Amino acid sequence: MEIRSRMVAPVIVQGAVGVLLLIAFRLAIGYLPMVKEVYLPLPFGLDELLTALIMSGIVAVLISTAVRLAVQLEAGGAGFPQAGLAVKLLAVLGSLLIVYYAYLPLLRPYLGRYEWVYQVVFLVAFLATLVALGYAVYTGVGEFSVALAARPRSTRGPVNACGQCGEPNPPGSAFCTVCGAPARPARAAAACTGCGGPLKPGARFCPSCGVPASVPSAVGATVRPVPPAQAPVAPTCVSCGAVLRPGAKFCGKCGAKQGEPAAAPAPEEKVQEPPAQAPVAPTCVSCGAVLRPGAKFCGKCGAKQGEPAAAPAPEEKVQEPPAAPVCVSCGAVLRPGAKFCGKCGAKQGEPAAAPAPEEKVQEPPAVLVCYECGELLRPGVKSCRKCGSPQQG
């Protein structure tokens, strides 16, 4: 209740101050002598026009205050379910009366014999708002009664009852104040361990929440009370952390809008690993022949197996343009085939003989070695003469 009053009180005080300021402004204007001296070419005076404008401002303040007050009541969880709607309808009723009295003097000269239309319009609007207010209060009382009946009742203290007439006596009384008989000793009423409600003598379950009651045990045995059921965690504001009522869309303390519950994360997809590939047979690093696993030398070219050597990059041959002939004496450029220099007259020498063609050297045949020990073998040998291991053809 204290938190709710702190939320509602500033809105009510602000609205009341606004209405009082407008009323004071209207009273101050009424005492100004120049207002009555101003003439308007209209069927009403300046005083009536200013009154209508100030009344319109009061209506705007009432509607604004009612809307803000309804939002605070709905966000703070008012005890009366339809409190916000009832406040809005009350503001509409007051606004209809203010507008009726404010604009009637201005419109009466123009309405003439149709003034009854003005009266009927406001009468219908007032009655419709009044019916809506009554229905809101009627439904709110029903919901409030259901919520009030569902609340757990508080436990009563120890009662000193008379052993003869059964009348209750004040605590500590040794005799009955009605019949004078000795009163029974005070006995605490049994209470539910879950909701705290009173239990009838001999009840095994709580009539309010259904929690099993503690049953008296045999002499000398200890009674273990049933642990109370855990209450649900109250929702809190996502901005300031204030406690909210269940289902509240706005925070009653800071006004922040509460977000929707976060969506559950999508299940992770299991990536299927590709099947393992079959091992590739080893090959010679020099000639590419297929080798058996563990061979240290190639049976075809005799190359030792190890880390594969990087292939050398092929050299690019750059074709140079043919050099122009020059004079052997002065170095002047000559035309191809000239026998004398056109500048100094020197005789040019004979063309150089073409270089002899290179002879191709025949490479010796490949040497065969043993796969295991590396012993040199003759061509066509099927087994090593040193270690006796069989050789590939």
Describe what is shown at a glance:
It is built from five helices and four strands; from the N terminus they run H-H-H-H-H-E-E-E-E. The chain is mainly alpha-helical.
Can you describe what's shown?
- The chain is mainly α and 393 residues long.
- Among the domains are: 2-150, no CATH class; 161-188, no CATH class; 366-393.
- It is built from five helices and four strands.
- A two-stranded antiparallel ribbon has the order 1-2. The chain has a two-stranded antiparallel sheet with strand order 3-4.
- Helix 1 runs antiparallel to helix 3, helix 3 (46-76) runs antiparallel to helix 4 and helix 4 packs antiparallel against helix 5 (115-150).
Helicity, as a percent range: 25-40%
How does the overall form come out from the CA principal axes? elongated
Quick one: how many beta strands? 4
Element string (H = helix, E = strand): HHHHHEEEE
Largest β sheet strand count, sense and barrel closure: 2 strands, antiparallel
Kindly provide the radius of gyration, computed on alpha-carbon positions and rounded to a whole number of angstroms: 56 Å
Query: How widely separated are the two ends?
Result: 104 Å
Mean pLDDT: 74
Helix and strand composition category: mainly alpha
